Amino acid sequence: MNRKSFLKLLSFSCLFFLSLPYKLLISATKKILNPELSEAQKNIMFNEGTEKPFSSNLLKEKRKGFYHCANCGNKLFSSTAKFDSGTGWLSFSEALPGAFKTKVDYSFGMRRIEYHCANCGAHHGHVFDDGPSATGKRFCNNGLCLIFKPEN
Ligand SMILES: [Zn+2]
């Protein structure tokens, strides 16, 4: 093995070991807290799956209230941030402060920002910079990960 490929190997293994505690931390914080979650919900929230577009009943939801994490109940979005993006997925211009944590997701050959519940670690969707409102953000959320609680 020459010096160059040895250094390459060394930097790869360093990267692996450096990211290991982070990976362990993520899996430790990801827990199923709601025993009533369906297989489809678990696949999205713990396997980073995506529901079929235009499949969520919440797309039609127009009432005032809050959207909560289906796993832990954490309050994530206000109905005032919801808009119709035409993509077939629930879209929000902003999340409530501290609701989510993000990470860069390189799956499907794209660079996207994945976000997950700050409380339980469950995956919810991806956030894009093409939102129509002042925030410029579009939180593209799987409806199956959310529970809507109307005001009053
Ligand atoms: Zn949660």
Could you walk me through the main structural features you see in this protein, from its secondary elements to its overall organization?
The protein is α+β, with helices and mostly antiparallel strands. It has two domains: 1-30; 34-150, Peptide methionine sulfoxide reductase (Metal Binding Protein, Guanine Nucleotide Exchange Factor, Chain A, Beta Complex), CATH 2.170.150. 24% of the residues lie in helices and 27% in strands. The protein contains two helices and nine strands. Strands 3-4-8-7-6-5 form a six-stranded antiparallel sheet. Strands 2-1-9 form a three-stranded antiparallel sheet, with no helix packed on it. A hairpin with a 6-residue loop joins strand 5 and strand 6. The termini are far apart. The site of zinc ion has 8 residues, from loops.
The number of strands is 9
In DSSP terms, counting alpha (H) and pi (I) runs of 4 or more, how many helices? 2
- The number of domains is 2
Biggest sheet: strands, sense, closure? 6 strands, antiparallel
The end-to-end distance, rounded to whole angstroms, is 69 Å
CATH class category label of the largest domain: Mainly Beta
Strand order of the largest sheet: 3-4-8-7-6-5
Oligomeric composition of the shown chains: single chain
Runs with pLDDT <50, length 5+? Answer: none
> What global shape is seen?
elongated
Per DSSP, what share of the residues sits in E-state strands of 2 or more residues?
A: 25-35%
Distinct compounds present: zinc ion
C-alpha-based Rg, rounded: 18 Å
CATH topology of the largest domain: Metal Binding Protein, Guanine Nucleotide Exchange Factor, Chain A
What structural class do the secondary elements suggest?
alpha+beta
CATH superfamily of the largest domain: Peptide methionine sulfoxide reductase
